[in-house]
Amino acid sequence: MFINMTIKRCSKNPIVVPGLVDYRRVSVFNPGVIFDNNEFFMYERAAGSLRPFKTSIGLLKSKNGIDFALASDKPVFSGDMLGFPDGSVEDARVVKIDGVFYMCYALQPYAFDCWPTGIAVPDYYPEHYPEWKDNNTEPMITRSGIAISNDGKNFKQLCYTTPPEIDDRDNALFPEKINGKFAIIRRPMQYVGEAYGTDLPGIWISFSDDLLSWSKPELVATAENPEWEGLKIGAAATPLKTEKGWLLLYHGVDSKSVYRVGAMLLDSNDPRKVIARTKNPVMEPQEYYEKHGLVINNTIFPTANLVHNGEIFIYYGCCDTCISLATVPLNEMLEYIITGK
Question: Residue 23 phi/psi, 5° resolution?
Answer without folding.
Answer: -70, -10
